[in-house]
């Protein structure tokens, strides 16, 4: 394994109905905290966090946009998933309507998001398993159907309240992202910059027509 520092940065957006726990997932991931009284996000919130993939000795930095779930903010969502590398479509396992909404977000991403975006369908509130309305097997079959169409959809469940499964979500996404492509692209750009010789380029001046001295 190389001792060289390997680093890649990706934009990630969270989508889903209001009160499914998007902000709680992010704060559990970034700050390892949970607040029962967390207020609804207005517009969007921005946070960053890194993970390390030990098998490839790579650090991944996520630039995370946590969007508001209220319907009145829906028109703003394309601003945040435009140029995103990954998206979390979050639903509440105790709310059938929130799962339907997450499916709508996936449809929208397939139509309008960048090609190759990694989508993770996340069922939150595992700590309320006894109140589950969304059958896990149904979700598995739904994701399998999506992936038969060559989509890149990951499935995960978590509890932002107790932290179960939260880190696993971002590790799964990190392993699905085009890390090698990004690192190799950055290395190639670095080599190209380094290969440029310092000094003044005289070729253009030599090829310029000389000005006439006549009146």
UniProtKB/TrEMBL annotation:
Protein name: Vacuolar protein sorting-associated protein 21
Native source organism of the sequence: [Candida] jaroonii
């Amino acid at each position: 394994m190389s001792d060289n520092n390997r680093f890649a940065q990706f934009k990630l957006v969270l989508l889903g109905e209001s009160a499914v726990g998007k902000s709680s997932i992010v704060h559990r991931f970034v700050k390892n905290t949970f607040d029962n009284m967390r207020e609804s996000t207005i517009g969007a919130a921005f946070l960053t966090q890194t993970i390390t993939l030990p098998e490839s000795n790579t650090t991944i930095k996520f630039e995370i946009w946590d969007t508001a779930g209220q319907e009145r903010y829906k028109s703003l969502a394309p601003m945040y998933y435009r140029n995103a590398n990954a998206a979390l479509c979050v639903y509440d396992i105790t709310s059938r309507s929130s799962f339907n909404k997450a499916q709508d977000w996936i449809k929208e991403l397939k139509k309008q998001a960048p090609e190759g975006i990694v989508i993770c369908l996340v069922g939150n509130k595992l700590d309320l398993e006894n109140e589950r309305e969304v059958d896990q097997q149904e979700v598995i079959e739904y994701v399998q159907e999506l992936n038969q169409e060559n989509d890149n959809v990951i499935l995960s469940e978590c509890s932002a309240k107790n932290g179960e499964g939260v880190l696993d979500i971002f590790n799964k996404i990190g392993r699905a992202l085009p890390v090698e492509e990004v690192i190799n692209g950055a290395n190639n750009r670095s080599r190209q910059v380094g290969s440029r010789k310092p000094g003044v380029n005289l070729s253009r001046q030599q090829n310029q027509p000389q000005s006439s001295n006549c009146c």
